[in-house]
Amino acid sequence: MRMKKETIACGLALFAMFFGAGNLIFPPYLGMESGVLWPLGLAAFVLIDVVLACLGIYALSAAGGGEVAFNRTIGKVPAVLLSATAILCTGVFIAMPRTAATTYEMAIVPNFGDEVGLLPFSIIFFIVVLALTIRESKLVDVIGKALTPLLVIGIVALIVAGIVHPIGPIGEPITAHVVQDGIVAGYQAMDVLCVIGYAIVLADTLKANGFTDHTVKLRILTFASLIAGVLLTLIYGGLTYLGAMCGHTFGPGLTQAQLIVQITQQLLGTTGVAILGCVVALACLTTAIGLIGATASYFQHLTHGRIRYRSGVVICVIAGLLICNLGLDEIISVATPILTLVCPPFMTTIVLILFARHIPSNLLYRGAALGAFAASIPLAAHAAFGIANWVEALPLFSYGFAWLPFAIAGGIIGGIAAHVRAKRMAKPHPATDDTTA
Fold first, then answer.
1. Domain residue spans in the chain?
2. The pLDDT value given to residue 214
3. Which of 118, 119, 148, 180 would staple 16 via disulfide (CB 3.0–4.6 Å)?
4. pTM for the model
5. Could you say which DSSP state residue 251 is in?
């Protein structure tokens, strides 16, 4: 019974940490564009965002933890550089401060106007985050048992209202690239970047609660990932369906944030906008708590306790407070090229770790990650400065996966190199004759 309760708490916590405000705005817009093909767009989004992230939690846990898995595959120094960069992107520089800016834009301004400035709001926001994150052992309990139910209730209320009172008929798609749009939306959410930090948080919590056996912990995290994956899929399905009913009612001129506001206004009026504000605030709050806790835990592990958890939390909170006041648009614009550079090698490594038992040599991992990184450099330059326009001609560019063929080629080269090295090591050396005539 105790194991069952812990599994449910971890599953709910993982769901809340993955489900940020960005995840809230992508599915409705995808549904509006997809029309009657919204299940197809949803499937592509879920595959890239939900499935990959949840499999990442399982893969890292089965391999002994994020740090161990990365060290064994691509080597200690590349592992530290790649995982630390991913953690910094999510927990310090981009995703975490974006939660406060998003809450302000979608929860405060629509309900209270811009008289409440971003600076005073962000101070209050991060004080709350600090209070709920500072005690490491209570992190999953706070997220999983207290905040998540409130978050789910708010979202379900919107979805149920849309089902009972449809906004309009579901029409034909207004995009010719339903699958591509779903893949790109899942790529933009990029929950997979968070898996190494989240795996550490969950493992530390299980250890603190008395679960020390690896098999037991893996079983809990496996079912927790399933719980989170099912909840995310159901929520995304409902939100995508709401968006699919809006294609002829609102039209494609709205932004992603404006669309979800219009949906709630249409369904529940002023009350709906207030509910949306609460949902966004809770989604951003739980995500910020998870990201900061994961970042602090990661650097405590990385530095062997020299940077303590509480110190890491304080540093992250201060950084988030400063960066979020740049504004949501500025954070998003800066994030695009950074994520374009970091995500490909990270995603490649995570996927390959799933097959660790069948890949004996780390040369294949290194080759694939290096190939993905080499391709991501011109892609990031194109995203940031509009240069290297030739990347648009690369295969899979419109899907957001122009780096994938390079990752595959790098993996093949690494596999061949590993095979050649193994043959050389297995080849017997010629016997030497030390006798003299």
1. 2-325, 335-425
2. 84
3. 148
4. 0.81
5. -
